[in-house]
Amino acid sequence: MKKLLQENGPDNIWIQTWNEEGEEVPEPVVYSENDEWSAQMFNYFFLGAFGNESEGSLNTQHGGYEALKTAMEGYFASGSLSEIHQRQTSLWVSETEMADTESFWFTVGWNNFSIDGLEGPAIGFFFCRNNENFLSLNAGEPVLLRGLPMKKPEFACLFMQEPAGEIRMFCQVPQGGFWSESLFPFSRKTDDAFHAREFFKMCKSFSEDVLVKEQHKPREEQVEFLSDSLSFAEQNKSVNFKDFKQDVLKEPAIIDAFDQYQEEYAGRKQWSPPDQFAVSEQSQNQAKKFVKSIIKLDKNFHIYVHGNKERIEKGFDSDKRLHFYTLWFESET
After folding, report:
1. Are 188 and 70 in contact (CB under 8 A)?
2. CA–CA gap between residue 182 and residue 192 (Å, rounded)
3. Helix 281-290 to helix 192-206 angle, to the nearest 10 degrees?
4. Measuring CA to CA, which residue among 225, 204, 155 is closest to residue 183?
5. 8-state DSSP, 33
6. Among 29, 116, 233, 248, which has the minimal tally of Cβ within 10 Å of its Cβ?
7. Between β-strands 294-297 and 301-304, what pairing exists: parallel, antiparallel or unpaired?
8. CA distance linking residue 238 with residue 276, whole number of Å
9. 186-188 and 167-173 as β-strands: parallel, antiparallel, unpaired?
10. Does pTM surpass 0.70?
C-alpha cells in the first residue's frame, strides 16, 4: 500500500531476538538509521507489509484494553519504546510458541509520520521468522550469508494517535488470530468519521483511476470534481449518496461509472457505507489535507485550485510544442 511509504525513515528500531531455549535475549538491539538509503530500505521492509488495510481502534471491550492503552499513551507522550516493547514482546512469548533462534521482533518508532492528513509520531510492531540464505559476491569473493528477505513481515501493525487522544490503528497483517485478538485487540470503526474518511479517499481514487485514466478527462475536470465533493459535504454537513450523484456527478455516464467503482472499492476495502452519514468539521479538515485539488505540470509547477474552473483555460502552443494554462484572477493575496 504505497500511501504508507514515508520520506523519513524510522527514528528508533528495537530488535528483539531469542536464545536456543526460546527465551528473550535480555537486551534488545537498538538501531537508529541515519542516512537516506537506510531510511528507504527500512520503510520498504516494514511498511510494504500492508497490502490490505484495515483501519480502526483498540477494542475497548477487550480485557487487556486499559493496560495496552496506557502503554500506548506512554509512548506517544514520551517517545520511549522501552515499556511498550517489553510488554508486548513478553506477552507474545508467553502466549505463543513462535519465538526461536531465527525469530525477530521489531518495535519501531517514527517521530514524524503522515497518512490521510494525520501527522505525528507512529509506532509499529513487526514479527519475522523466515530466514533465508544469500550468496554475496562482494569484491568477487563468494560468501554465504543468512538473513531476512526483503519481503513483508509475518505479522505487522501500525498505530498513531488522533488529536483528540484516541489511538488509531491503521493496518494489521494478518487480520485474525492471536495477533489481532489478544496481542493488539482490534475494533474496526464504522462511525460517521470512518465513513467520511473512506468516502473522500474513494472520491480521490475515482478521480484518478476513472476520470483521468479511463475516461481521459482533463485535469481541470478532476480538480473540479474533488473541489465540488468537498464543497458538497461542507455545505450539507453530511453525505447522501443520492443527492451527491445528482448535485456533483450529474451526468448519467459518470454516475454509472461511480456506482461501479464504489461497488469495487467497497468490496476491496470491506466497507459498507450507509446511504447517508454526517461529515464533521474535523473530517472535512482532514480530507482537505489529502484530497488536494492540484494540477501537476511536469516537475516544474503545481497549480492549486479551489474552485471556479472557468478562470482556468488550457491551450497548446504549436510553435513551442508545449501545453499551457491561462489563469485569470482579480488580485494577488
Report:
1. no
2. 27
3. 30
4. 155
5. -
6. 29
7. antiparallel
8. 7
9. unpaired
10. no
d(CA 155, CA 5): 18
Question: Cα(259)–Cα(136) distance, rounded to whole angstroms?
Answer: 52
Q: How far apart are CA 169 and CA 138, in angstroms?
A: 41
The closest of 281, 202, 6 to 119, measured between CA atoms, is 6
A 10 A CB-CB count for 36 gives 11
Phi and psi at residue 98, to the nearest 5° = -95, -10
Taking alpha carbons only, the member of 271, 269, 292 closest to residue 50 is 269
Q: 3-state DSSP helix/strand/coil percent for the chain, to nearest 5?
A: 40, 25, 35
How far CA 219 is from CA of 208, 290, 301, 309, 315, in Å, comes to: 9, 17, 14, 11, 13
Beta bridge partners of 105: 16, 127
pLDDT tens-digit profile of 34-85? 678 888 888 888 887 675 456 677 788 888 889 999 999 999 999 999 999 9
Q: Are the beta carbons of 114 and 6 closer than 8 angstroms?
A: yes
Question: What residues have CB less than 8 Å from 139, skipping those under 6 apart?
Answer: none
Which grid cell sits at 67? 493496560
Q: How would residue 325 be classed by pLDDT, with cut points 50, 70 and 90?
A: low
Separation of CA 111 from chain center: 16
Contact assessment for residue 124 and residue 53, using Cβ atoms and an 8 Å cutoff: no
Of the candidates 189, 174, 187, 191, the residue with the CA atom closest to the CA atom of residue 64: 187
Q: Are 225 and 248 in contact (CB under 8 A)?
A: yes
Residue identified by cell 554475496 is 136
Q: What's CA 132's distance to the chain center, in Å? A: 29
Measured distance CA(319)–CA(121) in Å, rounded:
51
Mean pLDDT computed over every residue of the chain: 82
Distance, in Å, from the CA atom of 95 to the CA atom of 98, rounded to the nearest integer, reads: 9
